[in-house]
Design a protein that fits this description.
CATH class of the largest domain: Alpha Beta
Number of helices: 12
Shape: elongated
Number of strands: 21
Distance between the termini: 27 Å
Structural class: alpha+beta
Helix content: 25-40%
Strand order of the largest sheet: 12-20-17-18-15
Largest sheet: 5 strands, mixed
CATH architecture of the largest domain: Alpha-Beta Complex
CATH topology of the largest domain: Adenine-n6-DNA-methyltransferase TaqI, Chain A, domain 2
Strand content: 15-25%
Length: 444
């Protein structure tokens, strides 16, 4: 080891590894690019941002963000390699790596692992000036070892990428699973075996009634004993007070649309109001356990079950549904695909889609006998608990895999990833030779 470096390695500034081509960059605003559409990729700080009709470069180059790059987010790459014809704007530094010193692939991996905290400035938009970039200290192994490191890194990081791609499918599968469970629960398919085993718990067969619902609901597909009811027959609906409140630093939470996440209320970031405002906003109705909070604007149709006694008031664009049937079942029913389709059809507006209180009242929901409601809730909660466990395991696995890339890179740049070859020319000797040749005006 030499000054903390593996045997044969050297540490040099980035400027000695690359030619900086920043003076050849040309920024083009989006309006001008729209008039110059072509087949040449147009690159910015973190990757391709469009197309253009002309090329500034036509070779393999290494780009690293000048401003706007995720310098401190190690889950994202800091640099990237481009090939062929290209146009680069002034948000990315353009580097041509000197092949007698290093390679685009080696430097990309090094820069992705580097800690930029002492080299960037700015707060909301971080900036890496050319001067600061040039001073970045690069740990440089012999050329042969660099090639072996790149080959090993490409293999290992390729496996990490494949693992991340597989993991990314899990949230989608879990969402589909939950929707399938809700669809089966609210159509009677989930409890078909229970009805066969518990005929005494069911009322006499009767044709399902829609109770004059304004929504066309396929009642013939429901089991005997089930009914279709409008929401305003199955519950009381209380609208929020349409008034902009004065928020306070302490007091009671006021639930807004952003706090209605589905499932249960998330009051961790709820705004607070004083006791006086709280009393004003709860004069008509005080939310209680078993109620359902409904978001009406923007992310409309999200429903949260009030599962415990908590003091809060409704903010604008929310409503309370107070069930007169099994509240947990109604909460599940409102999340079912069939009811969601009705909400989507009833919503108006584009930028801020809204569903009116009248439309909420007219939503048609399936209502099974009470005993079956209880069994449906039990089964759905058990299945959802299983999916929650899988989701928790996915989150741990995702966090672990995200750390793998940096762990592998750290090992590589400590000189622990590939074996050394005594026949490799030491980096310091290579650099002395290149510097001497440059001094003598010769090529390496």
């Amino acid at each position: 080891m030499n000054n903390g470096l593996p045997q044969g390695w050297a540490e040099i500034e980035l400027r000695e590894c690359v030619d900086v081509l920043d003076n050849e960059r040309v920024p083009v605003n989006s309006d001008e690019r729209a008039k110059r559409q072509g087949d040449v990729p147009y690159y910015g700080a973190t990757g391709q941002v469009g197309w253009i009709d002309e090329a500034l470069f036509n070779e393999e180059l290494l780009l690293i963000g000048e401003d706007g790059a995720p310098f401190f987010d190690k889950s994202k790459p800091i640099s990237y390699i481009i090939r062929g014809k290209s146009w680069v704007n002034n948000h990315a530094h353009v580097l041509r790596v000197r092949p007698n010193v290093s390679s685009n692939q080696y430097l990309k991996h090094f820069l992705d692992s580097f800690d930029f905290h002492e080299f960037v400035n700015g707060t909301t938009r971080l900036k890496l000036t050319q001067g600061a970039m040039n001073r970045v200290p690069v740990r440089l192994p012999p050329l042969g070892e660099q090639r072996r490191m790149v080959a090993k890194l490409e293999k290992l990081l390729g496996k990490v990428d494949a693992c991340q791609e597989r993991l990314a499918k899990i949230p989608v599968l879990l969402k589909r699973f939950r929707q399938s469970v809700l669809a089966a629960a609210c159509s009677g398919r989930l409890t078909a075996d229970w009805r066969d085993e518990n005929p005494r718990c069911l009322p006499p067969p009767a044709k399902p009634q829609s109770n004059e619902s304004d929504v066309n609901f396929l009642t013939e597909d429901l089991p005997d004993g089930w009914q279709v009811q409008r929401v305003d027959h199955a519950a009381t609906i209380i609208d929020c007070l349409h008034k902009t409140p004065k928020y306070a630093d302490s007091g009671y939470p006021m639930v807004r649309v952003t706090d209605v996440k589905g499932g249960y209320l998330d009051l961790s970031s709820a705004r607070l109001v004083s006791e006086e405002v709280f009393r004003e906003f709860t004069r008509r109705y005080t939310p209680r356990r078993g109620d359902i909070v409904f978001s009406r604007v923007g992310s409309f149709g999200n429903v949260s079950y009030v599962g415990s006694d908590m003091k809060f008031c409704l903010g604008q664009n929310t409503a309370i549904i107070s069930p007169n049937t099994n509240s947990r079942f109604l909460h599940l029913s409102l999340q079912s695909p069939t009811v969601r389709d009705q909400m989507d059809a009833a919503a108006v507006g584009t930028s801020q889609p809204t569903i009116s209180l009248k439309s909420i009242s007219a939503l048609a929901v399936p209502i099974p006998p009470l005993a079956e409601q209880q069994e449906i809730v039990r089964r759905v909660e058990a299945l959802f608990a299983l999916s929650d466990q899988i989701e928790a395991r996915y989150a741990k696995a995702k966090a672990h895999v995200e750390k793998l890339t940096q762990s592998i890179l750290a090992k590589a740049f400590r000189g622990e990833l590939v074996p050394q070859d005594p026949n490799d020319e030491p980096a310091e000797a290579l650099l002395r030779r290149i510097r001497q040749q440059s001094k003598n005006g010769k090529k390496a």
